[in-house]
């Protein structure tokens, strides 16, 4: 375990590098936006999320993994930009599906422009992402380009599958969800497109398709799971300004997070009835008082502590898999950055 | 002008050919669907619209234009399937944005599975469409494949632009819309992806990129406009069972169709106030009585007659442009079918 001072330095280094990537990728995303009409109802809304400060974790992973496996940095920027654009497309549609109000510290597209305009903006971002990826892969050998495209399609479908499972659990008010169901959910919903895909596609381009993908997937899964569980925790214990989304929003939405899964399996009597009654209601019928009461039950029953312990176990496994996943990568600042990202995702507040 | 008997024969021929294409493309679409989970919340809903009987106009245009310009039929089926899949993706999202209840004679996805599941299903169909197009273009020369992909991205963006303009007019309750604004709207919203793109991409593949696209665009625009105006008319005067959508649904949604544009510019006094008041309300606040009253005003002020006359003018121009657009095409059943489609789209009831 690193000390407090050392850890603070690590976080600063990681964040300053992420900020650099975010700036570059933001410029690249906005440059890719079509210069057409209607600005007011389509192209204006499409620029909003990409203009807001994002973490840039996904493009940073792709760029660093790619370079660590020998890629020319120029051939990766377009691919990293396409990943971040598709991420923005997902965010726009997820915010509609979830009825979310805040994203990256500002109102969601649906809450300012209406659902229909937000729906179109999300579709538009996905189309622009494809166009960017197409231009980026034109310089690659055709088989390698096909490989990258296959990865992209798989990633997009995995993410949708996860999103659909989560929505389905809420629609059907599924209560018998265990930690392993939760892990399967976030493997699809988060890990594939947040960590596994950016790492894989960077490594594939860098190694010209020769890399062993299995250990990368294992590492990416554990790393991405730690990232998602941290996200769930920030939604419960975070600071809204740093986090950029509504605190306790997941409880309003009835999302089956690890803490809620734990609470459902450990709460008893009137406490369990309270949670179940809350989940049976529609979002509009859920009260702030009940949300706060459930949040307190999570302390009473140790659901927060359980979540932290669970995630720390996953994080240790991720650290073990790291060396195996990058055994054939070149040592240097890219590999150091990737290694530092593992504790970073667990220490972050945004 | 052809006689009634001759015209009935023409409609039968066109419809039997469209049915054949619909069967082939439906099978091809369903074969392309991933065989994964969750079926209940994603892959099941994704199969619903492609399983319902559609007109198959778009794939039929692509296949026939392609063969008329010399394409091998096998190399076009995947492209035609991708176009129809993207069309289905658009329908799913449009039905969400418009709050529609019926599609192809059955409830919309959003009304049976909820908005969030429908949103995911539309995204999924678009991803599968990309995958199908990717496999279909793999056998083409790489430059030709890039050309096809460029066409696909342009088409998708044009459609979104049109969809966004239409939604924007409704959100801002725009009243000063003339026939030329309406034509610009449907050029984007309908013509590009319904007629222009399928014809262009078929011709590009058939001619190996050597075809002159300008006359095809001119023909496709007028042909597509006649198709859309017919669709608007069927929404006002059609038979719900054949049409498959709610009759008068456009009036509930406040869509700026040519008939409504005409009524807004010709109604006077209390009649105009009635229309304006209706349009200012949200969809939920619009009454069936007012919708019927507005429908009657369209007869009183000659808005239906104006729309018919306007469309017949456009149809004549389409017929004139047809010969120019297909001057280099091979005579035969494909060219005959394409020629017969022009009067067909204006005579159709579904």
TrEMBL record, chains A, B:
Record-linked Pfam families: polyprenyl_synt (PF00348)
GO terms classed as biological process: isoprenoid biosynthetic process
Pathway annotation from the record: Isoprenoid biosynthesis
Cofactor: Mg(2+)
Keywords on record: Magnesium, Metal-binding, Transferase
Segments traversing the membrane: none
GO-annotated molecular function: metal ion binding; prenyltransferase activity
PROSITE patterns (alphabetical): POLYPRENYL_SYNTHASE_1 (PS00723), POLYPRENYL_SYNTHASE_2 (PS00444)
Alphabetized PANTHER family for the sequence: GERANYLGERANYL PYROPHOSPHATE SYNTHASE (PTHR12001), SHORT CHAIN ISOPRENYL DIPHOSPHATE SYNTHASE (PTHR12001:SF85)
Family: Belongs to the FPP/GGPP synthase family.
Identification of the protein by name: Geranylgeranyl diphosphate synthase, type II
Species this protein is from: Mycolicibacterium rutilum (Mycobacterium rutilum)
Upper classification of the organism: Bacteria, Bacillati, Actinomycetota, Actinomycetes, Mycobacteriales
């Amino acid at each position: 375990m690193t000390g407090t001072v050392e850890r603070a330095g690590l976080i600063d280094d990681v964040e300053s590098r992420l900020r650099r990537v975010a700036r570059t990728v933001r410029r690249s995303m906005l440059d890719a936006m079509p210069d057409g009409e209607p600005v007011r109802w389509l192209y204006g809304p499409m620029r909003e999320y990409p203009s807001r400060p994002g973490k840039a974790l996904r493009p940073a992973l792709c760029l660093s993994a790619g370079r660590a496996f020998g890629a020319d940095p120029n051939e990766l920027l377009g691919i990293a930009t396409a990943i971040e654009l598709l991420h923005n497309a997902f965010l726009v549609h997820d915010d509609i599906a979830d009825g979310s109000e805040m994203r990256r510290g500002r109102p969601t597209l649906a809450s300012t422009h209406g659902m229909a305009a937000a729906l179109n903006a999300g579709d538009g971002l996905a189309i622009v992402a494809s166009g960017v990826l197409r231009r980026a892969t034109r310089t690659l050998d055709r088989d390698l380009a096909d490989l990258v495209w296959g990865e992209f399609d798989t990633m997009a479908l995995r993410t949708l599958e996860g999103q659909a499972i989560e929505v389905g659990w809420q629609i059907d008010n599924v209560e018998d969800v265990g930690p392993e169901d939760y892990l399967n959910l976030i493997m699809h919903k988060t890990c594939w497109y947040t960590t596994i895909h950016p790492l894989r596609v960077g490594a594939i381009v860098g190694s010209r398709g020769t890399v062993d993908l299995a250990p990368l997937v294992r590492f990416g899964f554990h790393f991405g799971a730690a990232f998602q569980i941290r996200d769930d925790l920030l939604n419960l214990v975070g600071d809204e300004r740093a986090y950029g989304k509504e605190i306790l929003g997941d409880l309003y939405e009835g999302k089956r997070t690890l803490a809620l899964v734990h609470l459902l399996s450990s709460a008893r009597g009137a406490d369990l009835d309270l949670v179940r009654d809350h989940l049976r209601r529609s979002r509009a019928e859920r009260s702030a008082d009940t949300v706060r009461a459930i949040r307190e039950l999570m302390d009473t029953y140790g659901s927060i502590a359980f979540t932290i312990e669970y995630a720390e176990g996953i994080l240790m496994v991720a650290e073990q898999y790291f060396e195996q996943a990058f055994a054939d990568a070149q040592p240097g600042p890219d590999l150091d950055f990737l290694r530092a990202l593992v504790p970073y995702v667990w220490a972050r507040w945004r």
